[in-house]
Amino acid sequence: MTRFYTINENSIYIYTTAGHSLIDLHAIPDGLGLFSAEVPWRLSPWVAVSEEAPEEGLRILEMLLKAEGYQRVEVDRRILEEYFVRGDERILPPQAPVIVEEVVPVHQWTLDNRPSAQAKPTLRRPSRRRRVPKPTPLPKTA
Amino acid sequence: MGSTIGLVSSFAALTFGLFFFVYAAKYYASILIALVTLGGKKQRADEGGGEGAYDWRDTPLVSIHLPFYNEVNVARRVIQACLAQDYPNLEILVADDSRDDTIKILKDPVWRRRPPVVKFIHRRDRSGFKGGALSEALRFMDPRAEFVVVFDADFIPPPDTVRKFIQRFREEDPTSLRTDFLPDLQPATSPRKPVAAVQGYQLHYLNKSENWVTRGVRAEFSGSYMVERVAEERLGAMKMISGSVFMLRADVLRELKWGDSITEDWELTLRLYREGYRVSYTPLIQAPAEMPTTIKALAKQRMRWAEGHTHAVRKHFVGVLSSTKLTAAEKLEFLYFAPYYLQSAMLLAGSAFWLLAEVNHRYPWFWQPTFGWSLLVSNLLAAPLMCLAGLWLEGDLRADYQGAFGLIALTYILAPYQGYAALRGLLEREEGGWIRTLKTGSITDRFLSIKLRGLMRWLTLGGRLSRFSPRFEGPLVNLPVRALLAAASLALLMLPPAVALVLVIHR
């Protein structure tokens, strides 16, 4: 694996190794409050950092990253900061502990196991329309 | 009562007139020095170097810092210009405070596809203004970087800019470069002060034909960068870092750091000199930029400069003058430069006193109208003549000479704004906020690198290649312009003293 992310308090570090390109930040919706004008963020060819990110946005981004093949690892923040600055992969721990979670490939998504079905809360606004119960069909008379 | 007012006004007007003559005299002397320096034999020896003088095994890491604030019109082109640098060991750091679509440009994956490395640092506020943004860039700069170059967003540095900066550092101060693989390069034993920064020429050129304001600003910068600073460099006077197109030693910058002044460049300059460093200037490193296009935009920009400049002078005045690390020439230049923007307030006050004196017809016994007019003429023509000399040295006199006349108008239009801001900077406890100069991205005049190279060759070879030497192709085509400019400078410089001498003899 060459694509990782680390969540440290309210900051997320998304990074790659072996010359792999980072996720396109345009693919991350502005509504998540990450990589937008209102929060501090940084970007280098190998690391993208968003600081003071909202928890909800982080959760959704995590799902997006997993779908893109990124793995969550626990790496010390100072090491990641140095990696951002220098881009030297040798400073990264050789065997970063990977936090294993079940990742369902996109082509195997079903209505129940797709990430959006598990996400709480979602970005979707609750519908304001009141659901009108369907009228009970009248019993057929003979 | 009226006679007293008239008499006091006469004395005040004369005092201000003499004060301005000190500035005018410096301009005339600068013209003479620049005309001799650029293109002369002396210049060849000092500014030369050429391609062969630099050993390209020595390529220290250079970090280019680009401070952005809502630069959607120009962000892409300046990043592309930095990526196109022909220097092999670079990183580019964009310190961004934007709230507009600039952010979308920064996120573009195209910047991450190939070397050099481009890093983006976005802040959600503008704390510390441009100095704050540059501090963030410094924080995330590669620690191996040995030099920092700063460009404002509206500049388009030519591909050889960084290479020329390194070359200039080598010429100025060989010990500032790594020497571990150059065993023959011994530590300098020169008593000259170490160079902390090299300032290049901010060539305000890109939209020069937009209107009379841009023509005036173009002429003003030409006079300042081709004449005044060249003379300062020749005389070993204090030279300021001017916000863009400069290279700094990274170790010095890490030590001194950026301040949060609204004129962080001037404030850092003063601290550099107080620490015993100096700033070097060369007109051979040029990066074209655009200019404010309206009086309103220009006035806002100059008000910020006037306020921040005067505030920094007040803060460092005693420290600079009492420092043992500054030479006499540097202190003298500081004294000259300290009330630079307060001149505007003095211009207004001097004009008012002159009017009062004329209305009341009360003059001191030694007052002669001839002397007053000689002062006025000499003072009034100093800046335009310096601009004309600058434009001629660039080979652009024919195209841009109208700007010198626009500059006279601009001087009087901007005087109240600059005067007010300078007084505020002098009296207030804290500086005001940053007033942004909008960059439109408009280009009316393409900067031809061929032309630049022609100029470079001419300057470097000192006019040996006569076909590259600047010439005036207008109505004065057959006149020796260099001699004409020198004679005019000398005549206007000597006019008030000569008149005073004649009056004394006749008395």
Cα distance spanning the termini of chain B? 29 Å
| Terminal Cα span of chain A | 69 Å
Strand order, largest beta sheet of chain B? 3-2-1-4-6-5-7
Could you tell me the radius of gyration of chain B in angstroms?
Answer: 23 Å
Do you know the CATH architecture of the domain at 51-176 and 193-337 in chain B?
Answer: Alpha-Beta Complex
Highest CATH level, the class of the domain at 51-176 and 193-337 in chain B: Alpha Beta
DSSP summary: helix tally of chain B: 17
| Chain-averaged pLDDT of chain B | 84
Q: Which of globular, elongated, flat, extended, rod-shaped describes the shape of chain A? A: elongated
Overall average residue pLDDT of chain A: 78
Q: How many E strands of chain B?
A: 7
Count of helical stretches of chain A = 3
The helicity of chain B comes to 40-55%
Q: Which stretches of chain B of 5+ consecutive residues score pLDDT under 50?
A: 40-54, 178-190, 460-478
User: What is the ordering of alpha helices and beta strands of chain B?
Assistant: HHEHEHEHEHEHEHHEHHHHHHHH
- What is the spatial order of strands in the main beta sheet of chain A? 3-4-2-1-5
| Main sheet summary of chain A | 5 strands, mixed
Most extensive interface: pair and counts? A-B, 20 and 24 residues
Order of helices and strands of chain A: EEEEHEHH
Poorly predicted ranges of chain A:
119-123
Q: What is the strand content of chain A?
A: 5-15%
